[in-house]
Amino acid sequence: MDITERAKQRIRTTGETLASSVFEFAKRLPLVKDRIAAEYDKLLVDLRKSAKPYADEFASSSRLPEQGRPHAELLAELESLREREEARWREGFMSGGVYHGEPEHVALLERAYAIHSQTNPLHSDIWPSISKYEAEIVAMTGDMLGSASVAAPDEVCGTVTSGGTESILLAMKTYRDQARVERGIRRPNMVAPITAHAAFDKASQYFGIELRKTPVGADFRADVDAAKRAVDRNTICMIGSAPAFAHGMVDPIEALSSYAKQRGIGFHTDACLGGFVLPWARELGREVPGFDFRLPGVTSISADTHKYGYAAKGTSVLLHRSKAQRKFQWFTITDWPGGMYMSPTIAGSRPGGLSAACWVALQAIGRAGYLDATAKILAAGDQVRAGIRAIPELELLGDPLWVIAFRSRDPEVDIYRVLDVMTQRHWNLNGLHRPACMHIALTLRHTHEGVVERLLADLREAVEHVKAHPSEQGGMAPVYGLAGTLPARGAVRDMLGMYLDALYEV
Ligand SMILES: Cc1ncc(COP(=O)(O)O)c(C=O)c1O
Predict the structure, then answer these.
(1) pLDDT attached to residue 1
(2) Which of 162, 202, 273, 307 to mutate for ligand 1's pocket (most ligand atoms within 8 Å of CB)?
(3) In what order do the strands lie in the sheet with 430-432?
(4) Which pLDDT belongs to residue 26?
(5) For residue 311, is it within any domain?
(6) Is residue 198 part of a domain?
(7) Per the confidence metrics, is the pTM higher than 0.70?
(8) Which residues pair with 235 in a beta bridge?
(9) Is 264 among the domain residues?
(10) Residues of the chain whose pLDDT is less than 50?
(11) Contact at 8 Å (CB) between 81 and 60?
(12) How many domains does the chain fold into?
C-alpha cells in the first residue's frame, strides 16, 4: 500500500471512528440518552412486530411443558407455520434463499436426512458412512473446480462445512496459522475487495486478522493495482469472489492470484455463490474468467453445496490446493482429560444427515442436471437484464450473469422506495448500499413460467408508483438512507443488535 493510499484509508477510517465515537459519547449524556432510549423503544415495537409475526396467533412457550405434547398436535403446528411461509419462496418472490425447491427433490433430501438423522461424523468409527459421503462430496466438488489441472491432483483436498461463512472462516484461520508457523507472522493481514462477503469481516474479528479492503472499479470488479498495493510482508492471503454477493461480478482472479503466487502468499477464491454455476456456464459457452484451481495461484476455494449445489441448508465445501495447507485447518488436542480429540471444522458434533442429503443431491442431479439448471437460470438472467435495461429510470451495475444488481439513475426515484413497493407486492429482494442499489439472485424458482415477467412488470409499476408519490414515507428506505451516513452508523449498528435481541424474545 503506498503512502497516499494509506493516508486516504486512514482518513476514511478516522472519519468513521470519530463519528462513531461522537455517537457513543453523546449516547452517554443524560438528555441524549433519554431521547435515544425513547426513539429506540418506538423502533423496538416495529422490530418486534416484524420479528415475531405469529405472536398473537400461536401460543408461546418460555418453560418446558409439564407433560410432553402429542406428536400429531406438534406436527400440525409445524405444518401450519410451514404453509404460511412456503408460498413466498415457492412462487419465486425471494432473491436467493431456496435454490431448487421442487417437491420431488426436497422429498429426496428429506428422506436422506431422515435415514441418517442419528449420525454424527465426530464418531467416524460408528458412522463411517458419513466419512464416505463427505470424502466424495469434496472429491466431486474438487473435480468440478479443476483439481485435475493441479500437478498432483490428489493433493487437492478439503472438508465439508456448515455453510459459506464457516468455509471462509476456516480458510482464513488456516492461512493465519500457516503464516505464523512458516513465516513467523504475528500481525497478519488479508487483502480483499470491498465487495468480498461479510464473512471475511467476521473472520477478521474472530481471528484477529486485519482486513485490508480495496476498491472495485467502475465494473464492480476488484481493482488489481489497489489490491497489489495493499499487500505487505504481513499479508497472509489475497481474496477474490466468483462472483461477489452484492453485484454478481467475478473479480479478476487470474491477475490477483498470479500476484499472490509471485508474493508467495495464499489466494482464496470465494465461489460460495458461483462454484456450482460457473463451471457449467463455461460449458454452455458463456464467457467465464478463470477462478478455480486451473489458475496456479489459487490455493483455496469455498463452494456452497447448499446454494446452487441444491443440497439442503447446512453444507458447503472448503477446498485446499494441498494437504500441507489443510493440516493448518485441523484441530487436535492430546492432553485433554476427555481423551484424544480431533475435529476438522469449527463444530464438534455435526449433523451427518445433512452430509448424506448433500451427497444425494450431487448424485441425483449429476453433470447433466447441473448443466440444465444453469442453462435455465442464465436464460432467466438474460431476460431480467434485458427487462431492466428497458426501464429508463433504472440501470444495471456491471454486467453480471444471474445475480443482478441495479440502481436508479433518476433523481426522482429513490431505489429504496422502489424496494419498499416491491416488498408490499410480496417480493423479498436485497437492498444494498455503497452505492445505493438492490439485487435479485436468480434461482430455479425464477425459471418457472411467468415469474420473470411478473418481476419485471412489478418493477416497472413500482418505479412509476415512486415517481407518482414523491412524499410517501415509511418502510426500509429511511433506514437504508441512515446507514449510508457516517454519524448514523452507530445508531444503525445498535438497531441491528436490537433486531437480533428481538429474534430471541419469546
Ligand atoms: C459470495 C458469498 N460468499 C459467502 C457467503 C456466505 O454464505 P453462508 O450464508 O452460507 O454462510 C455468501 C452468501 O450469500 C455469498 O454470496
Answers:
(1) 43
(2) 273
(3) 394-396, 403-408, 437-441, 430-432
(4) 63
(5) yes
(6) yes
(7) yes
(8) 189
(9) yes
(10) 1-15
(11) no
(12) 1
